[in-house]
Amino acid sequence: MRLAASNFGLVALEWADSQPRLDSYLVRLKQPVERNQKMIQPYVKEVGEYLKRKRREFTFAIDWSTLRSFQRNTLRAVFSIPYGETRTYAEIAAQIGHPLAFRAVGRANATNPMALVIPCHRVIGRDGKLHGYGGGDGLPTKEWLLKMEGEMTT
């Protein structure tokens, strides 16, 4: 995993093979980027614990200020989905007061800069099927994460 944080919290988390996407995202933010292992260590620790099934929620701060309004509202709703549960794109759209914006909710999830932490893998289609996931190996990674959390069985 690759992480970026500001003085206000986590800004981005990408899969290791997505370094170019992370770099591109950080350039768009127009904020200076400096390597600071000490600053990101708490994030690294908690993400590692999550992936080892020793953590169900994150306690560190998230810097929501880097997100546009609709995406921020959408991802805050996604962030509130409990470990081991799922919601549909339509349910998230209704939750944020835009019941017909389920496709826009999908787009906000597709551009989620903090996968795993903001658990877009917990958002599924109205048909109960997995739709879209840009992290790792795509849908197999989404399925793996949901199985890890106990939401899906083989």
Structural key phrases:
41% helix, mainly alpha, two-stranded antiparallel ribbon
Report on the architecture of this protein:
The protein is mostly helical and 154 residues long. 41% of the residues lie in helices and 10% in strands. It has helices spanning 19-29, 37-51, 69-79, 89-95, 102-110, 139-148; strands spanning 2-6, 9-14, 87-88, 123-124. Strands 1-2 form a two-stranded antiparallel ribbon. Strands 3-4 form a two-stranded parallel sheet. A hairpin with a 2-residue loop joins strand 1 (2-6) and strand 2 (9-14). The chain is globular.
Quick recap:
This protein has 154 residues and is mostly helical.
Sequence-ordered SSE layout with sheet pairings:
Blueprint: E1 2-6, E2 9-14, H1 19-29, H2 37-51, H3 69-79, E3 87-88, H4 89-95, H5 102-110, E4 123-124, H6 139-148
Parallel strand pairs: 3-4
Antiparallel strand pairs: 1-2
Helix pairs in contact: 4-5
From the N-terminal CA to the C-terminal CA, the straight-line distance is 26 Å
SS element count, helices: 6
Strand order of the largest sheet: 1-2
How would the global form be characterised? globular
**What value does the average pLDDT take?**
88
- Oligomerization state of this entry? single chain
Annotation, overall tally of beta strands: 4
Largest sheet: 2 strands, antiparallel
What is the helix/strand order? EEHHHEHHEH
Alpha carbon gyration radius: 15 Å
Structural class: mainly alpha
Low-confidence region ranges: none
- Considering DSSP H and I runs of 4 or more, what fraction of the residues is helical? 40-55%
Percent range for β-strand residues: 5-15%
